[in-house]
Amino acid sequence: MPFVKAFRLKTTPRWIILLIDMLIVTASYLMIVFGDTYAWHKMLPSTQILLNWFVIITVYFLVTYLSKSYTCVIRLSVIEDLYRTFLVVVTSTVMLVFINMVVHLVREAPLFSYWNVLIIGALTFSMMMIERLLIKYFYMRLTSANDVRRRVLVLGTSLDSLILANALKSEIGGKYEPVGLLSIKNGKENEQINGFKVYRFDPDNVASIFVGNSIYALIFSASNNELMRSGFADHFIRNNIALLSINKVEEFELDNDKEENNANISTFIKEVQIEDLLGRDPIVLNNSLVNNNIKGQCVLITGACGSIGSEIVRQVAAYNASKIVLIDQAETPMHDLALEMQKTFPEADVELFMGDVQNLQRMEMAFRKFKPKFVFHAAAYKHVPMMEINPTEAVLTNVMGTKNMADLSLKYGVYKFVMISTDKAVNPTNIMGCTKRLAEIYCQSLFFDARKQGRSTQFITTRFGNVLGSNGSVIPLFRKQIEQGGPLTVTHKDIIRYFMTIPEACSLVLEAGCMGAGGEIYIFDMGKPVKIYDLAVRMISLAGLRPGVDIQIKEVGLRPGEKLYEELLNDKEKTTATVNKKIMIAKVRTYDYRDVCEHIEQIVDLAMQGDIHGMVYAMKLFVPEYKSNHSVFEKIDREIETNSPKAVELATPETEKYY
Question: pTM for the full model?
Fold first, then answer.
C-alpha cells in the first residue's frame, strides 16, 4: 500500500505535531469559554476571547517550541513523552498565572479566571497524551503487518531497560521485537513490567529461555556494560546466543534541531565486539588538568598516523591546542588523517610535516619553525618478529630517533617531552623491547643532567601493554582469520597479554604528560591479563561459530623474541602512587648521562655500520636484563656468559641509584 509505504519511509513532520499540539490548546481554551458561557449565560466580548486565546497560545507555543517536546512523539517511550509534556504544561500554566497576576495588578481585572488556567492545563495535558498514544498506535498498526522482526530480550528491569524496550517495540520499520526483560535478580515467576514479561536468569538453563521462546539475541545498554564485562556474557557466548548493545539509551532520541529525522533506533544497536568484554573499571582521568595544560599550546606529535599517535591527535584537538604539528613518514595515512581532521575538527590548526625521526636535520626544521611546547613521541617500530629480522633499523628509529627528538626538545625549550614506551621494555626478550628500554634510559638520564644545568624541559615516559584494535594486533588478525574460515593461529596455548583501549592509552599519555614533573616512568594498572587462547575461543563464539568444530585454533609456536607473559615492572623496580589510583610511577634505576651517551653512541654507530652482532652484544652489555628468547641472538647471551666478569664491569654504571 502506498500509504503504508509513505509511513515507512518518513516520520511525521515535526511541524505537524506542533500544529496539532496548538490545536489541542485552542480546543481546551474554547471548551472553557463555552463552559463558562453555558454556566453563566453570558459570553465574553469577541475581542476579549481573541486576546485571551492569543496570550494562551503564544505562551504554549513558545514553551513547546523551546523545549522541543514535539520532536519525541514517535521514537521515545510513553514515559518520556509523559515527562516532557507534563513539563510543558506546568511551565506554561505557571507563566500564564504570572501574566494574569501582572495584568490584574495593572488594570485591576485579570485576563481570565485562575481556575480556568489550571483547567486548561489539565485538559491540554490529557489530550496531548491521548494524541501521542493514538499516533503511536496507528503507526504500529500500519507498519507491523509486513514487518519481519527478530525476537529479542532486553537485559535488566531498570528505567533505561524499559525505555529501550518500549522504543524498540514502537519503532517504525524496526528490526527487533522485544518480547521480554531478562532479570538477574530473584523474583516471582511470570511477572510483567509495563507489558513485558520478566524472565529470570538461570546460568544452568539460559539456553532454554532463548531456544524455547525462539529468541534471537539479548540486547543490553551501557548501564549494564560493567555486568557484561565481569564474565556474565560468557553464559550467552557458550550457548551461541547473540549479544547486541547500544551505548546510551539517549542515542536514539531525535535531533531536536531537525524537523525530520529518519534514523531508526536499530541503527544504534550493534553486535558486541570482543573489545566490549575485555575492559576493566573505567579510568577516571583529570580532564581539567589536561585542558589547562594543552589548551592554547602548540603540540607536536611524532608517529601521528599510527594507532596511538592518531588518537593523541584527536584528543589534543578536542582540548583546543593552538596548533597541532603532525610528523610521520607515511604519506597516505597522513593524507587520510588530514581529511579526517578537516571533517571532525574543522577549527583545529593542523600542520602536516612529512619526515623521519632518524633525520635530525629535517626534525630540527620542525622545531625551529613551530617551536612546540609539548612533544608526544609515538614514532617507533613495534612489531617484535619484524624487528628481530631488522634489528639495526629498530635501533636507528627507536633509539637514535628518540635521542634526536629528546635533544631537540631540550635545545628548543620544549616544556614537556612525553615518550611512549611499552611493557616489552621490562626484562626485554627481544630487540624491540630493548630499544625501547634504551630510549627510556636516555630520556631519563637527559632530564637529570639537564636539571643540574638549570634547564626546564621535563622528560616523561609512559609504559603500557597492548592496545585493542591497533594496527597489526591480535584482534584484527583473529577477525580476518574468522572471515576466511580459520584456522585462528596462536603462538602458544598459555601465552597471556595485558590489554587496554586506544582512547584509554592516549588519555593516560596526556594526563601523565601534564601531571609529571620530569624523570618519571608512568605505568598503568591494566587489570588482569588475558589468555590469548581464551580470547580466540570467545571471538569464534561471538561470531556464532563453534570453536574446534566450525573453526579450528592452531598452535604455531612462539615467534622470535616473544615471551609467554609481559611485565609492567622489572623485579627490582618499585612503584609510588599518584592522584589517579590507576596510574603509578615506577621507581627505576637511573644512569649517568655521560655513560649513557657513550654506550648509545657506540650502539648507534654499530647499527649504521650494519654490524648486527656487535650492536646486539653492546645492547646486552648495557642492558644486562635483556635476554633473548626464541631468537638467533640467544647465542650472544651465551658468549656474554663466558665473559661474565667483563660483562658485569661494562654493564654496571658507576653512579647507580634509584629515582
Answer: 0.66
